[in-house]
Amino acid sequence: MRQSQLFTKTTKELPKDEASLNAQLLIRAGFVDKIMAGVYEFLPLGWRVLNKIENIIREEMDAVGGQEMFMSALSPKENWEKTGRLETMNVLMKALGANKESREINDAEYILNSTHEEVITPIAKKFALSYRDLPFSIYQIQTKFRNEARPKSGLLRGREFRMKDLYSFHVSQEDMKRYYEEVKQAYLKIFKRLGIGADTYITLASGGDFTTDFSHEFQTECQTGEDEIHVCDKCKIALNKEVLERQSICPECENKDLRLAKASEVGNIFPLNTKFSKAFDYYFTDKEGNKQIVYMASYGIGPSRLMGVIVEKFADDKGMIWPENIAPFKVHLLSLNQNEEADKLYEVLKDLGVEVLYDDREVSAGEKMADSDLLGCPFRVLISAKTKSAGKLELKLRDSNEVQMLSEKELIEKLS
Length: 416
What we know:
The chain is of the alpha+beta class. It is about 30% helix and about 30% strand. The radius of gyration is 25 Å and the shape is elongated.
């Protein structure tokens, strides 16, 4: 894409109402725009990154047998009354009719879903009623809503956000636990592919809103993180603060020397057991013709939160540094008054399938290079009078600031 045609622009000014690094950089670089507290619009560059993150998640969910669907954002409050969560979840958002006196306007009350157990369980009950239908898992990637009292930290905690939620259904607790471990490993693959695997820990957490004693969070160590975890470096697992109050040693190796670390939660998984199947009277018929309760589990990952965490974790004082597989573009091509030569290289790289953002704007060299650092594409290719006279192209790696002088052939071999 030619940068002169990109409708968003960068800015040097810091957003006045944003303290978090991820929001500051994403807004300055034109990846997102803030419409109100806790709500962000994903602009073209940000949408490209978000889509790439979600596609990685999608591939790993498909690999463990997840079937993708798309559920409604609205649900009837009666479903939430059945599970008892209408009153216990203080972050629920409600949608109300505008005018109860008008017959032309629907005055019913709905829930803007923050999670979808109340939606997927009655759907599953319509189709899977025999042991032959189980197990199965369904997932979606969708916008969710939480009535956060004080949304903060940019994409890390908002009132509207993207979520991948997977739900699995089983004939027994044993089968549920088997699949639970399978998804746990799939999550680790996702975080590894996103470049944060080495610093992301399976973290023992409380059962939260559910009936289980424990659940698991996935916490990425990050200096600006909102959470505190206690890491066992021997086992690469951690405990959150709530669990630490109940046990102060590693459950795997009984190590007492746990390291305190700041972290951001990027995913969580819950063994729901029978909480929701009982609420919706969801049973299946076993081989002997007997009625048995369905066991469930849920698995969440926040793609938009992941985007914010990755910015926080990898940024430097110049801007963002994107992992290559989720960067908005692989190459940022900068022309310093050499548009004829740059045009040719741009077309060559495009024909080879390389994603290129081509800065063909009529602005200063300093502005182009500052914007390139801010946007954070993995490779910057510079064409100038100096490089042209040397018969070379300048390649700069964003994550190391390493600079190489290459011929066009060498550059193409490296990038393709």
